[in-house]
Design a protein that fits this description.
Layout lengths: L2 H8 L39 H13 L3 H14 L5 H19 L2 H16 L11 H17 L6 H4 L22
């Protein structure tokens, strides 16, 4: 058995035998030492409706867990209808861009935020699943610029967008929680 085969034998595996790290993760998806207290991981391969995907991703973004939101979008990207894959891919890129920005990877964060925004810009003024894509792309461009200007990582929860955008109601009204940050 060579070194590569020995390494493969020692790797963590999921029940189907695929390589999957069993190390706990922090809220930004970074691996922690074995035995450390981590946050619950998102299960992979969950099929959700578009509305369920948006709801779960928003919950995770609000909790300062954009890496986990990215995994929710990635599930939709991989399991959803072909016609929606570019939407979910763009949203996943925004979430992982925020992840990198919150980890202090300024260049990677800005690149992914802009790549995701460019992918979503193709949708124009459309609002699939109520997602405010025009406002979301503007948020991503603004955050990408800020990330490159500032020295410190951005706070994930405070920097997260509202996916469904600004409500049509008066600020402070019942829908105020849906306003873009």
């Amino acid at each position: 058995m060579d070194d590569r085969e020995r390494d493969m034998d020692r790797r963590d595996r999921d029940p189907e035998g695929r390589a999957r790290s069993a190390r706990p993760r922090d809220g930004l998806g970074r691996p922690l030492p074995y035995g450390a207290e981590g946050v619950a991981r998102q299960p992979e391969g969950v099929e959700r409706t578009g509305d369920e995907t948006v709801y779960e991703a928003q919950r995770l973004l609000d909790a300062g867990m954009p890496f986990h939101a990215h995994e929710v979008f990635e599930d939709a990207w991989k399991s959803g209808p072909e016609a929606e894959r570019a939407l979910w891919r763009g949203l996943a890129q925004l979430a992982v861009g925020l992840t990198h920005a919150a980890r202090g990877n300024r260049s990677g964060g800005a690149t992914l935020l802009r790549r995701g925004a460019a992918g979503l810009a193709a949708y124009g003024d459309a609002r699939p699943y109520g997602i405010a894509l025009t406002e979301l792309t503007a948020w991503a461009e603004e955050l990408a610029g800020r990330v490159l200007r500032e020295e410190k990582p951005v706070p994930a929860a405070e920097s997260a967008p509202r996916l469904r955008g600004r409500p049509e109601t008066e600020a402070g009204g019942p829908d105020a929680a849906d306003s873009v940050r």
